[in-house]
Amino acid sequence: MIALPLWAQAGAWGLVAGTALLIGAGIGYFAAVPKRVIAGVMAFGSGVLISALTFELMEKAYEHGGFGATATGFICGAMLYTAANWMLTKQGAKHRKRSDGRHDSPHGEDRSGANSLAMAVGALLDGIPESIVIGLSLLQGGKISVVAVTAIFLSNLPEGLSSAAGMKKRGRSALYVFSIWGTIAFTSGVAALLGYALFEGLSHEVVAATIAVAAGAVLAMLVDTMIPEAFEGAHDFAGLITAAGFLAAFALTKLSH
To answer: How far is CA 59 from the centre of its chain?
Structure first.
């Protein structure tokens, strides 16, 4: 069997993780999934991602680049995501992960067209740092991080599910919804490929800082978008479900080493 070059492996695994968006969108669009179930899956995915950030990303970034590069990259990633998310919120993307079809207009007017574009850009903003992480993981010994791919897949599933359900409630057609999520899934594969190709051969410090930038952006994304939606739907059980996701990813980390 002919092994794929590493850049192709990065793109393929990024596409696998991105495919979860399409799967989730299909479930959300064609099935009536209770909001509490969506929130539970989102809470579990949040816990998985937090665990992956801790044991897969930040730890590896520290090992290869030291505290300075890691801390600088982490803070910069969180700041960049927060600034971009703030601008998108002003355009109507604040509730992009909600399944109730809620509009987000500051003055109450119907801005569904603007909202849909902002939500699509917001989904790209959420997904690109995650996908880049997949490509970067191949730079750490030429082996894909199973935990990172699993964590991103599990976080993408409820995102596609809740957003597609919300788009349907706003009257969007299946063609529209799946065109958006198909494009974002494909972009996830491209981002993972670039995460490997652009940083191959660069110093450990640069790679470590870039991993930390992605980690900071993902953590900011979790707190700004996924966790509020999870808590709103799951209420008092959100913390427990998130903890279960964290433990599952922690166990997978230890089993893969």
So the answer is: 19
